[in-house]
Amino acid sequence: MPRDISSVSPAFIEHAHGTGAQMRADASKCRRCDLYRDATQVVFGEGPDKPRVVLVGEQPGDREDRIGRPFVGPAGRVLDSCLAEAGVDRSACYLTNAVKHFKFSQRGKRRIHKKPNVGEVRQCAWWLGGEIEWLEPTLLVALGATATFALFGRRYTVMADRGRILKADNGAAALITVHPSSLLRNPARSEVLQERIRFISELTLITRFLTA
Ligand code: URA
Q1: How far away, in angstroms, is 124 Cα from ligand 1 center?
Q2: What 3-state DSSP class applies to 166?
Q3: Full-model pTM
Q4: DSSP alpha helices (H): ranges in the chain?
């Protein structure tokens, strides 16, 4: 019988091993998929060496790709303000992405975000799994569907499983919530305001879990 790999978490199958500095240097030469061809640089995770919380996004955006740091663009600003409202200190968290190169299509001068495919997420889980092993966080937070897939395979979905504490395959606790860019789409609409309130209340679970 062929093995059903859909429930296997890409980040916990085979992954890099080493210190953060070693992996960061190795990842800068990564050719595991083709995304390195058009991206400016690898955007590796950043934060304290032994964080209790690791937040996982999808992939760097245009600004992150140019600057080389995760969550420094518009989605990062939404994340920062929602973390602050939830009472979570961003500087105490390690922030990273499921995919470390920016995937985009060029439209004139603009670079339009393209969602990474399953193959790209699986290849890049090599680095995500390595980061998690090195950091040994108490709590993993998946921001959106791509991060949820990277951490859990197809076991959980954002829609069905957001907002409760689950267990990842490495034994760490894990929380699934939406990606902050989902709040950027049309900030005037009342559903987006509701969604922001829900996102903040899910982020408060981080502090509640850590202080329990
Ligand atoms: N979106 C992400 O998922 N990650 C980033 O670093 C920036 C935007």
Answers
A1: 15
A2: strand
A3: 0.95
A4: 20-27, 62-67, 74-85, 118-135, 145-152, 158-161, 190-211
Q: How far apart are CA 81 and CA 75, in angstroms?
A: 10
pLDDT at 191: 86
Contact (CB, 8 A) for 43 and 101: yes
Q: What is the DSSP string of 117-150?
A: PHHHHHHHHHHHHHHHHHH--SEEEEESHHHHHH
pLDDT, average across residues 133-157? 98
Task: Kindly report, residue by residue over 20-40, the tens digit of the pLDDT.
Answer: 999 999 999 999 999 999 999
pLDDT (0 to 100) of residue 190: 83
Backbone angles phi, psi at 91, to 5 degrees: -70, -15
> Distance from the CA of 2 to the center of ligand 1, in angstroms?
35
Domains in the chain, CATH or no CATH each: 5-211 (3.40.470.10)
Ligand 1 neighbours, Cβ below 6 Å, are 57-61, 64, 70-71, 73, 75-76, 97, 181
What distance in Å separates the CA atoms of residue 201 and residue 94, rounded to the nearest whole number? Answer: 20
Give the Å distance between the CA of 166 and the centre of ligand 1: 23
